[in-house]
Amino acid sequence: MPAVRTFSLYAGMAVFVNFVLQVTLFVALLAMDVRRQEANRVDVLCCVQLKKEDTPRSNGIIYNFMENILSPFLMKTPVRVVVIIIFSFVFFGSITRIPKLEVGLDQTLALPDDSYLLDYFHDLNTYLRVGSPVYFVVKDGFDYSKPENTNLICKTSGCSPVSLGGQISMAAQRYNYTRIRQPASSWVDDYLSWIQPSSGCCRLYEPDREKFCNASVKPSGGNCTNCVSQKQLGNDRPTPESFNNYLNDFLSDIPTQDCAKAGKSAYNSGVNRTAFKNGTVSHIKATYFMTFHDICVTSDDYVAALKQARIVAANITKTLGVEVYPYSYFYVFYEQYLDMPRQAAINLSLCAAAVFVVSFILLGFSIGCALITMVTVIMIVVDLMGIMYFWSISFNAISLVNLVMCVGISVEFCAHIVRKFSVSFKPSRLERAADALATTGSSVVSGITLTKFVGIIVLYFAKSQLFQIFYFRMYLCMVILGATHGLIFLPVLLSFVGPRCPTVSAARSRLSENTPLLGSKRQ
Question: How far is 434 from 441, CA to CA, in rounded Å?
Answer without folding.
Answer: 10
